[in-house]
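Consider the tokenized backbone below.
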């Protein structure tokens, strides 16, 4: 039986206020919670048992899947104190059913990836590897740890984030998807915090362990920031990224219960959630409009997220903005890029105007 662990314990602080009350993997992406996209991909790869390594708002994962009836066993390993990536994996591994030589998939709960999981498992088996890491190439790897490999794909080292271009000895980075031999998971200490990136993997390499990279050019995106989150959702809708839960590529994904005025323009892979109301001459481009949101006539929303049960006043303009749930933005506001508005905030009509780089509303945080 193929088993997998999904790491979903993080607080998602970079996505606040969206994650104030919802764990990041449960946020809506292209019409479903992101974790459901991952589950569907794992099931397509033959996974029959998934363990969620949870911590933050752990009970919400059980709530999400309480009525899940498809052929999949789901277990929950709650992390009561911070254990690091390695400790979280080890804590989840106690709920696995397979033998010591079984292969276990481990996925980060915030990575949207097109990697072929069956191919990854096959390469792991062919190489008789202890650990196989999915690696991806990025144009500028300085924001990531580097993973150089030799000609056979064997991992040579794990390097911290480089500070200069000269230190970028490779463009390969850890893509947050692994295959472990079960015995490697069982050897991770249980009585303290452990990082697989800084401790488990480097120690395996140092002792000559069979640690390999599987480098691909498949679609890959870390959904940890608001703009990346929006782009990942849009890429699923337009078909740039693929999920078993998303149908044919489209310019928009509109819930059947949403009401969109015929004169509105919804494009760029935008999603419109249940019971949302989009007014006349509204433009929604590459954005996420959640359930119960009302958008007034003539508003323009670009590369933004409006969380559930909020309202956007007529002729307001949002660009790269995050609006928390139950918020109200009055008419004719122009919100500055990268602004995040807390849940429940209320801005009066013309409460925010942008002139150059000046923002006339210093009370908003």
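A designed sequence for it:
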């Amino acid at each position: 039986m193929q088993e997998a662990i999904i790491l979903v314990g993080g607080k998602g602080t970079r996505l606040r206020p969206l994650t104030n009350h919802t764990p990041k993997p449960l946020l809506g992406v292209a019409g479903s919670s992101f974790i459901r996209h991952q589950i569907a991909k794992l099931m397509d790869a033959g996974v029959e048992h998934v363990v969620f390594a949870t911590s933050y708002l752990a009970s919400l994962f059980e709530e999400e899947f309480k009525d899940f009836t498809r052929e999949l066993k789901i277990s929950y390993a709650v992390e009561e104190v911070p254990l690091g990536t390695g400790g979280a994996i080890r804590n989840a591994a106690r709920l696995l059913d397979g033998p010591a030589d079984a292969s276990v998939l481990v996925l980060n709960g915030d990575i949207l990836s097109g990697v072929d999981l069956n191919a990854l498992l096959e390469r792991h088996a062919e190489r008789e590897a202890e650990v196989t890491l999915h690696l991806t190439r990025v144009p500028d790897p300085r924001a990531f740890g580097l993973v150089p490999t030799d000609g056979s794909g064997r991992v040579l080292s794990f390097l911290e984030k480089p500070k200069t271009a000269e230190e970028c000895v490779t463009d390969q980075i850890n893509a947050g998807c692994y295959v472990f031999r079960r015995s490697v998971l069982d050897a991770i200490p249980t009585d303290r915090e452990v990082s697989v990136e800084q401790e488990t993997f480097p120690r395996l390499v140092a002792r000559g362990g069979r640690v390999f990279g599987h480098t691909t050019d498949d679609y890959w995106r870390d959904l940890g920031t608001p703009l990346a989150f929006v782009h990942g959702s849009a890429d699923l809708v337009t078909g740039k990224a693929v999920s078993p839960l998303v149908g044919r590529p489209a310019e928009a994904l509109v819930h059947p219960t949403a009401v969109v005025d015929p004169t509105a323009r919804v494009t760029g892979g935008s999603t419109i959630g249940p019971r949302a109301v989009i007014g006349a001459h509204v433009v929604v481009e590459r954005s996420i409009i959640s359930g119960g949101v009302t958008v007034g006539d003539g508003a323009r929303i670009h590369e933004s997220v409006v969380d559930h049960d909020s309202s956007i006043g007529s002729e307001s303009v949002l660009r790269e903005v995050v609006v928390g749930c139950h918020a109200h933005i009055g008419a004719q506001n122009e919100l500055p890029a990268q602004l995040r508005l807390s849940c429940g905030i209320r801005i009066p009509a013309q409460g925010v105007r942008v002139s150059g780089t000046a923002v006339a509303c210093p009370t908003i945080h």
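The two ends are 50 Å apart (CA to CA).
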